[in-house]
Amino acid sequence: MSGWLTRNIPKIVVAPSLAAVLFFVYGFIVWTGYVSLTRSRIMPRYDFDGFGQYVKLFRTPRWDVAMENLFVFGLLFIAVSIALGLLLAVLLDQRIRAEGAIRTIYLYPMALSFIVTGTAWKWILNPGLGIESVVRSWGWESFSFDWLVDPEMAIYTVVIAGVWQASGFVMALFLAGLRSVDQEVIKAAMVDGINLPRIYVSIVIPSLSPVFLSAVIVLAHLAIKSFDLVIALTGGGPGYATDLPATYMYAMAFSRGDLGQAAASATVMMMTVAAIIVPYLYSELRPRHD
Amino acid sequence: MAAQNDAVLKIEGLTKSFQNVHVLMNIDLAIEEGAFLVLVGPSGCGKSTLLNCVAGLEAPTSGRILIGGRDMTDAAPKDRDIAMVFQSYALYPNMSVARNITFGMKVRGATRAEQRSALEKVAHMLKIDHLLNRRPAHLSGGQRQRVAMGRALVRQPKLFLFDEPLSNLDAKLRVEMRAEIKRLHRALGATIVYVTHDQTEAMSLATEVAVMEGGVIAQLGPPQQVYDYPVNTFVAGFIGSPAMNFINGRISKDGGAIRIQVSFDGATRELPADHYPFGGGIEDGAEVILGIRPEYVSGSDPSADRPNVALDLVPTLVETNGFDQHVNLAFGDSEISGRFSPREQIKLGTPVRTRIDLSQISVFDRETRQRL
Q1: What is the pLDDT of residues A66-81, one digit of tens each?
Q2: A164 domain residue, yes or no
Q3: Residue pair B65/B11 in contact by the 8 Å Cβ criterion
């Protein structure tokens, strides 16, 4: 009996959380998937309706805006965060003074919640309160920086706030990668007559491809599920100009009383994430030969 | 000044300090074209720092470095006309073998045709023709080291620098690559500065050995000279394996005859030392250390005309390695090691007739530990 207990105690301990995860995560994924195939409105109705909700979803202009925003935001957010993070990491890699302090300063925004970031940037970018009003008070009366309230440009303010939050983290990733580069390789390149910028471009950065992959994965899932940033910064506005799929889903589920639409959009989002994560897992978990 | 220009590498009064730690102290060194200088010493003796200073990867605190007669003390590594091979091979991980070798040439502005002909030449010389399209990750240690050497060779520099290039290889491969490096040195007439902590490597490769200790060059000379006439007990103990035997003794002068008294099993033995060229003369009663290489401690009869002494010593440890037996023998309250013929029957604890050939002894002052 005690032998049985010793053998099985890890399984017994893990079982409740496994059951909870199975039910609350995977169970509700299945449930959401099912609801997206019904004609549910404010309350779930379990009458099967095929892909009607998806057809409706892809005919909705607001969903098009949300997907387009996700595309613009995701691409810019990932590209700019990586470029800026890499640049900061390379500069920080030059064995400068007070590196630890500077690293912490750049990394700190990651410790903030997106709500805080969004609220802070809402004030900074508010034409009546932030940058525009400050520059005007310096006497530059015609200065205008009103992206936050411009439906065409508002999505870029989300990019700015997102980049501010994430690029320090990307910098930390790249810095760790740069530190793991064999210093003798850099010495060898210097003796070989290659100048420092070229060493970085041709030798060091190409050897960081695993770090690029990690950075893209982390940033991509941040982009897809970024919901709180938009809610805090623009509330999806002006109008629905900065809606993302996540805010669209939230609006459908909780303020528009359209559970079917919400479930369909949630399923599309999950498919999008899967399209990114599955190839990554496949490449990471496959047995290696070298 | 003309003589100075003949030296491919000349180092004058080189000092390197980190805060209060003096890593290198007032190093003077000059080597001629075609020389193979090996810097050898225990870890922390400053040999790698010296090499990095020559390469321009570290800036000396004071002193001058001349390469090919030109002052290169403050020049960038790429302007020094040198090539360097590193312990970790330091290949560019994202490039094929061929690109590893030619990338430096490309950056320096060589044409495609030049790159290809240089690549073909060194690939053939180093027998890496079949590996040119592989990545460094898919090469063995020995192959990587060949590629690293190929990258150095295509530079055709005035001076090659090797920083412990064989330390990461297994024993068999190390011997192979050692021979390869020696052959390349002969074939190319290259001038090489080579750092190692392995005295065997130093002895077998060098035309000049610099034994370093605590930031200074203890002795500089051809390998055989350093082996036969070590200037102090450090060099004597570091070069040679098994290490030289040290026996405390006292000089006794009796008329014209000079003898070294050693205590042995409570009694005092006198060993003849008339043949030893005491540099500045020697005083009666001087405290000395007698240094004898293990190969001069054996069972075989040395030639009759060589000064020698025969003792019965008790073996405490026997190591057989096929071509001889390495035997530790109790000598008073310490031990000495000797090399015996493998045919000799040696039993632990049974005294064995041991002849000590005194023709190649070294005598050191016990106070200063310098050679007398």
Answers
A1: 888 888 998 999 999 9
A2: yes
A3: yes
Partner-chain contact A207 B94, CB within 8 Å? yes
Contact (CB<8Å) A184/B87 = yes
Whether residue A152 lies inside any domain: the answer is yes
B 276-295 → A contacts, CB under 8 A: none
Contacts of B151 in chain A (CB under 8 A): 188, 192
| B308 touches B355 (CB < 8 A) | yes
Res A210 pLDDT > 90: no
Does residue A28 form part of some domain?
A: no
A93: tokens are 């890699």
Quote the domain boundaries for residue A238. 62-285
How many C-beta neighbours within 10 Å does residue B136 have? 21
Residue entry with tokens 């090996």:
B38
Residue A254 lies in a domain: yes
Q: How confident is the model at residue B4 (pLDDT cuts 50, 70, 90)?
A: very low
Rounded to an integer, what distance in angstroms lies between the CA atom of residue A70 and that of residue A77?
A: 10
Mean pLDDT calculated for residue range A244-262: 87
Please name which of A118, A129, A8, A70 lies closest in space to residue A247, comparing C-alpha atoms.
A70
Min Cα–Cα distance to chain A from B76, Å: 8
Residue whose tokens read 């090539």: B83
Please judge whether A194 and B104 are an interchain contact, meaning their C-beta atoms are less than 8 angstroms apart.
yes
Q: Encoding tokens for residue B183? A: 């052959």
CB pairs under 8 A between A and B: 68
Burial class of residue A247, CB neighbours in 10 A (0-12, 13-18, 19+) = buried
Q: Please judge whether B104 and A206 are an interchain contact, meaning their C-beta atoms are less than 8 angstroms apart.
A: no
ipTM summary value: 0.78
Q: Does the structure show a pLDDT above 70 at B182?
A: yes
Residue at A211: amino acid letter: V
Structure tokens at B236: 């004597």
Cβ count near B356 (within 10 Å): 23
CA end-to-end span of chain A, whole Å? Answer: 46
- A188 has a chain B CB within 8 A of its CB: yes
Whether A290 has a pLDDT exceeding 60, the answer reads no
CA distance B89 to A188: 9
Is B358 strand, coil or helix?
Answer: coil
Does the structure show a pLDDT above 50 at B206?
A: yes
How many folded domains does chain A comprise?
Answer: 1
What's chain A's Rg over C-alpha atoms? 24
CATH of the domain at A271: 1.10.3720.10
B222 upstream amide cis, omega within 30 of 0: no
Beta bridge partners of B297: B356
Establish if B82 touches chain A: CB-CB under 8 angstroms. yes
Q: Which residue of A has its CA nearest to B153?
A: A192
Q: Does residue A245 have a cis bond before it (omega within 30 degrees)?
A: no
Q: How far apart are CA B281 and CA A269, in angstroms?
A: 95
d(CA B250, CA A161): 84
Domains and CATH numbers, chain B: 2-238 (3.40.50.300), 245-365 (2.40.50.140)
**Chain B: residue whose CA lies nearest to A192:** B104
Chain B CB contacts of A202 under 8 Å are 92, 103
Q: Is B138 on the interface with A (CB under 8 A)?
A: yes
Contacts within 8 Å (CB) and 24+ apart, B334-341? B334/B247, B336/B245, B336/B247, B336/B292, B336/B294, B336/B297, B337/B242, B337/B243, B337/B245, B337/B294, B337/B297, B338/B294, B338/B297, B338/B298, B339/B294, B339/B295, B339/B297, B339/B298, B340/B298, B340/B299, B340/B300, B341/B298, B341/B299, B341/B300
Q: How many CB atoms lie within 10 A of CB A232?
A: 19
